[in-house]
Amino acid sequence: MSTLQALVDAVALGSIYALVAVGIGLVFGVLRLINFAYGELITAGAYTLWVLRSLPAVVAILACFAVVVSLSLLLERVAFRPLRKATPATMLIATFAVSYLLQSIYLLVFGSLGNSVSTLAGLQQAVDLGGLRIRWITIVSLACGSLLLIGTAILLGRTSIGLHMRAAATDFQTARVLGVRANRVIAFAFLVSGVLAASVSVLFTVQNSLVTPDLGVPITIFALVGVVVGGLDRLWTATLGGFAIGFAYSLLGDKLSGEARVYLPSLVFGLVIVVLLLRPGGLFAGQPRSVERV
Amino acid sequence: MRRLEPLVQYLGPATLIVAVAVAGSLTSHAREIEFRNALVNVAIVVAIYVFVGNAGVISFGHVSFVAVGAFLSGLLTIEAQSKQFVLPGLFGFLRETTIGDLPALALAALAGGLYAFLVGLPLMRLSGLPAGIATLAVLGITYNVLRNWEKIGPGPLTLSLVPETTTIWRAAAGALAVAATALLYQRSRAGRQLRATREDAGAAQASGIDVYRQRLVAFTLSGALAGFAGALLVHLLGSITTDQVYLSLTFLTLAMLVIGGVSSLWGAVVGALLVSGANSFLVDAENTVHVGFDLTLPDGTSLVILGALMAAVLILRPSGLTGGREFSLPRGRAKAR
User: Fold this and answer.
1) Residue B176, in any domain of the structure
2) Which of the ends of chain A has fewer CB neighbours closer than 10 A, N or C?
3) What pLDDT, in 10s, does the model give residues B302-329?
4) From the CA of B307, how many Å to the nearest CA of chain A?
């Protein structure tokens, strides 16, 4: 039974990381920009929940979405739009700088000790399903995760803005020539990724109630690693990669005994290196690229 | 003039480094450590530049080599007697050996180079983003192991009692040596071949350049320099934790490199000194500095301002402050001769 339990937990963590992966992947798709500051959006949402902890949960959660989405759009406008023509290295380091800036603001405003969020603490309680003790948050994470992923898939596949985004992700220049409005598509990508970040804030703080200024850093790193392992070029492979990393992390954490458990990050990173060496294009990328020139 | 080109290219970085050292030696002891720190940062950033700048491949892993150099050199220079008590869990060899600080610097360089070579053997086959992520994974592993394995270090505790032998002059000499090595390398046959792969990997390969081999050479050299810089760092601080050689140092040093201009030695040195200088100034300003008037920043704002400054420079000057060009004398003067 405990194996099944571990599987369920792994799927739940996997679905949270899948959401982060989609958020990073959407922006990468249209801008070729790896947004290292993505985790700081999640942190912003978590702090919003903390600040509004005395209000009803619904209000706090709505505010969390509003804050995170605005911050995401603001970053796009102020920081990333001027950098569209810059080299990939500069863009990457600029997102680092933004991440550093936001973290130091959180540190300044909220201090380093951490604040405890209990907006949806009730979800920590478990239900008994035929001998399986499953916490509500696991079920909610799974449900929200799948709904949001399906929602994003519909958005991308069935709406005209989604079509524009996919076109832009395939070939930005050609898409522009054919009348796709660059600013609109990019802003929309940041909007959707902001919505996803906000939902991760809500789900993540239930499991991990302590909010510190660097809360978002490990989330971004693991999701990013997952995204690259899955294959960045297409959204669904990136999503699967994100899911895989959360799943593997949770499952390996359960299987390792106490002593070895501290080396779990090493094990995951080691696996990542192996995957990258064997399949540089990504684990789920299908056929290797015909021309891997270098 | 053309024959003097390498000397001219060295002149700029060397003058800056010496100027910082002289300025540091003239200030109070409390201020001097900031100047020493800036010089050690130069060494770290130039070490990273040797690979990232010449190969055009981003690496998040170099702070691993800094960490290896720092912890090895730190451990080996602490007196054996103290180690028996403070770090009883160490391997016998590490616990009982004590060496001088100069051999320790050399050993740190050797260890950094060896580690980089072993990591590079498989990883240098990658390029682009997968290479970046793989080196990030290396950093993650190095941090995780150093933090938990108490046979090779202090684990989650602080490594203290390290002799503070990085004086301002030694920091300057170290930075000068690293910069000279970087320049000699980038002007060598191997360095030029690697720079050709950076401009157009396909064309370079078609001209008979072994991309993998050249990247591995640069990665190893750059790892050795990073290990050396790490040793300078630990002997500057006197104590170190694993968190000091992890993500924030990685980010800060890469930002210094990109802000200066990623593809030149001059850029690496300028970026390292400017960002270090700005950082020291802002931290001092939290305790009031005098700049014509008394400037006092509220506590904790220095990080925010530094982050905003770095983001602003990157947004306004995406190719770096030097534009990635080497130092050269003003053109008019060169012609007049």
Assistant:
1) yes
2) N
3) 888 888 888 888 888 888 888 888 888 7
4) 4
